[in-house]
Amino acid sequence: MTNTQDTEIDADEAAATRAPAARQAPGESPPSRPRGIGPFGWLRWGWRQLTTMRTALILLFLVALGAVPGSILPQRGQAPEKVAAYFADHKTVAPWFDRLSLFDVFAAPWFAAIYILLFVSLAGCVLPRAVKHYRSMRARPPAAPRNLGRLPQSESYETDASPEEVLAEARALLRKRRFRVDAEGDAVASEKGYLGETGNLVFHLALLALLFALGMGNLFGYRGNVVVTEGRTFANALSHYDQFTPGRAFDTDEMAPFSISLDKFSAKYEVSGDKRGQATDFQARLRYRDSPDSPERRYDLKVNHPLKAGGAKIYLINHGYAPTFTVRDAKGQVAYQDSVPFLPMETRTYTSEGVIKAPDAAPEQLAFYAILWPTAVASGDGKQIVSAFPDALRPVVTVSSFKGDIGLDSGAPQSVYKLEGIGKTLQPIKGGQKLLKPGETFTLPGGAGSITFDGLKQWTSLSINHDPGRIPALIAAILAVVGVAASFAVRRRRVWVRASAGKGGRTVVQVGGLTLGHPTAEFDDIVTALRGPRDAGKAPAADADEDGADAGPGAAERADAEPGTGSATEPKE
Amino acid sequence: MSSADLANLSDKLMLSTVVLYIVAMVAYAADLGFGRRRRAAVEAPAEARVLVGTDGEPVADAPPSGPQDAPAERPKADWVRLAVLLNVLGWGAHLGVLVSRGLAADRWPWANMYEFLTAIAFAAVTAYLVVLWRYKARFLGAFVMLAAVVALGVANIWLYNSVGPVVPALNSYWIAIHVTAAIIATGSFTVAGASTILYVLKARQEAKIAAAGGPAPSEDDAGFLARVPSSEALDRLALRVTMFAFPIWTAAIIMGAIWADEAWGRYWGWDPKEIWSFVTWIIYAAYLHARATAGWKGRKAAILSLVAFAALLFNFFGVNYMFSGLHSYA
């Protein structure tokens, strides 16, 4: 790669603490503009530029900046209806924003370009570093520098033991402390703490893996939404979804053939205090089969407790009321009989609205707009109805009747929650407003028909998805956290011990220590242990440094480019 | 005690906490303003010993840059001791606020904006007490107290919410894990932010002094900055705290994703809260990288750190009030 530093890290602490070598611009400082180097040279130059830390920083910043519009503008992936509303409100800028993919930021080509460049830059830095790290883990610990006294941590003392004894003891001691130990001549070299760099590499590689897992989920997965009313069954097939988003590479034939029946939905609410009406628990009692011929099982679906069926996960997302109505036409024939999902207008009281369409009514089609008051009470002034509680304690609906052409025959898609063409094709029936309790029937004026409020059911909105990237993403994410923690907590450190015969038959022992970052107390512990009880108390050991468990300092300095050498990180102009 | 009594106790303790923090802030400020001279005289030997003991550990209070030989005047008041005492008492009351609130509601006491912000302030004060204990970083006291008082003030004036149950989406053991991690990280980032702001100010002052070429101005001319350690030490303290908080923030985001997968059916959906957590994470990551890169370390890296902190604050306040998303409760 681009580094010109030898893999050997010398006693020079500075070399050990600078930014990763792969992130450094070439040390031989090529001319700022490559001249006459040909296309291959240009490629090399571009690759070096891409893998510098400066480029990585700029790309990181661009990713952050690029994500911001995704939170300011409505996004198609999350709220397509809000995007449509934005288009209606901002007729001039919306198309321009759309051209820049600002309503699909996270699927936009420019956003993809930024993060792909970032990840290429990351890979270009991390992969060579991983190779280098693997080699250095297998290489012998670096030989002892000539003068151990010049190291950041050093100690020397005399002992009666022979040099061989001292070195043997040092080897045993360092091995016991899980150093990698190498003996050569009159010295012992040892090194440990590879976990820091390993963690750093694992973190970065895990981010790459996370990106792939996300992509895999998007390509091969699917997600959909469906509203299921009590007493109904949903079979997992494309046509039964209200909304369905398949991954690009998802084959709809692969959909798991499970089915779900909703027996009962129940919600619990706070009944007193100033939080009265706040929901505290939702539960959907289900029966499901993994496939048509597998046994039927029960499941109580709750928020935070999804159901796994046939490789998909099923979530309870929303709920509401679905009053049941029977509509009879002018001839007295049943033109409509079903429960209709109503949408809540307000979650505190669950006052809900919905429409009933009876296109089969003759001679004229009938339609109704209705408001449901789950716990109907008179308002303060006694003139209006309000709902006092979200639970259906005293349900009442108010209906407004319309006749004419509903507009379903034209084939144009229509919302099931709205009436279209009121005042044009659909005319309000005079005196067609009525308040109904369950079981009551309202006979429309002029013999146009009747509507009966049969009772109340509830619906649930289920989200169903299949994401093959889920588990890989989880593993990658866990590795990333473990990696970043290890890289901040563990430092590489080296200890050398040299013993030689001194004056008067005594042995001079020199111990030197080098830690990436700040020195730790570990070195002093080692020296104390080496000197052993027989030398204890002779001379006070150098002041013990602060505790070695301190993750911060060393890691902090590890990230430090030492002044003087640091300029190598930047391409020279 | 009944739930209502406990809730009441929580609110009373909140008042005590705020009062104690305000007085502690004043005492810390007094220490920054005119506490040093006396200590320089009285404690100089002790400090010298500390410095030897920590072997050049620069964050452990650098020796006073001002005149060491100040006359040993009669101490007026030991501001810093008073400040730390009040601070610790306030911290105890603050802990009481959270515990009594949690007992009153019979759940983890961080399920709405009021409780969340109260807990973040608690985490920030705790993080400060830790750096005070480990690195003797008392110069941060006034700033952290100010941040805590502002946070608690905002929580009580605009975000107050009476004790109550949580919505079903929050009824999960993940609240103990995900939200706690977010609180610890945010509190620690606050301390790092305070240190970074001081760093920027101090570095500017040092640059000015270096440019003037003259000797360091006397303590009275240099203002409170003379009583904070060197810019290098501030920078390193900020980095240390950030390096503690960053992995926790990473974990908070990931555990949030796991929870989102359980509750909402997707682990990442670019909800505004998710976007801004991600943006914050990215900028802190950029800061950590910049800190290791020549040409970026120092002022540029510090500014990145402050931008990241601003994104963090925006994620808390801005996202909830400007955008609609799934994290509407916190």
UniProtKB/TrEMBL annotation, chain A:
Residues of the signal peptide: none
Domain ResB-like, chain residue ranges per copy: 53-516
Keyword Transmembrane listed: yes
Subcellular location as annotated: Membrane
Segments of skewed composition (Low complexity): 14-26
Main location: membrane
Segments for region (Disordered): 1-35, 531-573
PANTHER family according to UniProt: CYTOCHROME C BIOGENESIS PROTEIN CCS1, CHLOROPLASTIC (PTHR31566:SF0)
Annotated protein name in UniProt: Cytochrome c biogenesis protein ResB
Source organism (scientific name): Actinomadura yumaensis
The organism's taxonomic lineage, starting at the top: Bacteria, Bacillati, Actinomycetota, Actinomycetes, Streptosporangiales
TrEMBL record, chain B:
InterPro entries, per the entry: Cyt_c_assembly, Cyt_c_biogenesis_CcsA, Cyt_c_biogenesis_CcsA/CcmC
Record keywords, A-Z: Cytochrome c-type biogenesis, Membrane, Transmembrane, Transmembrane helix
Pfam family, one: Cytochrom_C_asm
Chief location category: membrane
Domain Cytochrome c assembly protein residues, every copy: 110-327
Subcellular location field: Membrane
Source superkingdom: Bacteria
Membrane topology category: Multi-pass membrane protein
TM annotation in the entry: 12-30, 82-104, 116-133, 140-160, 172-201, 237-260, 275-294, 301-323
Matches recorded under PANTHER family: CYTOCHROME B_B6 PROTEIN-RELATED, HEME EXPORTER PROTEIN C
Protein name: C-type cytochrome biogenesis protein CcsB
Protein's organism: Actinomadura yumaensis
